[in-house]
Amino acid sequence: MIKSIISLLSVALISSSCSTIQHKEKMDSTKNSVSVKLQNSNPVTIKNPSGKITLYAVAANIADVPATIIAEKSFKQSELPFEIKLDLPKNHYKLIKPAVNETDPIKYYVALEWDSNGDGTVGKGDVRVDFNKKFPTISLGNNNEVFVLQAE
């Protein structure tokens, strides 16, 4: 559990300090959901279908700030690929800290917590985001594909 929390915090800190030139988007407060397709490049084994996906947001024009959780959703899936819809809170940009307004560029990304091998811990042998394939950046209103793999 502590490893997964440290891993999640590391991802949040790394992504908040990464370049966002390609991934800036203006806030669209009319969007009320976002769809994400979890796609695998290699075969994976799923023994435990219960997992959780979390959508984060961070101001794209400020470096070294932690990301804010915008939405979380638990799921049950026994095979990949699959698509999951995350409902966005109304005016979700107001949740982002440090504060942003509707004209600020926002970077969105997802994190995955899934003990897919059913051993009681998230780590080795579980399905996780494949950061080598593509960073899990999310764009509101577009088709979003996040690549996953089985951790070694």
How is this structure best described in words?
The protein has one helix at residues 2-17, and strands at 33-40, 50-59, 68-76, 82-87, 106-114, 127-129, 137-138, 144-150. It is mainly beta and 152 residues long. It has one domain (2-150): Sandwich (Immunoglobulin-like), CATH 2.60.40. Strands 4-1-8-6 form a 4-stranded mixed beta sheet, with no helix packed on it. Strands 3-2-5-7 form a 4-stranded antiparallel beta sheet, covered by helices on one side. Strand 2 and strand 3 form a beta hairpin. The longest helix has 16 residues, at 2-17. The chain starts with a helix and ends with a strand. Residues 1-25 have low confidence and may be disordered.
Name the descriptors.
Immunoglobulin-like; 1 helix; 36% strand; 8 strands; four-stranded antiparallel sheet; disordered N terminus; mainly beta; single chain; 152 residues; four-stranded mixed sheet
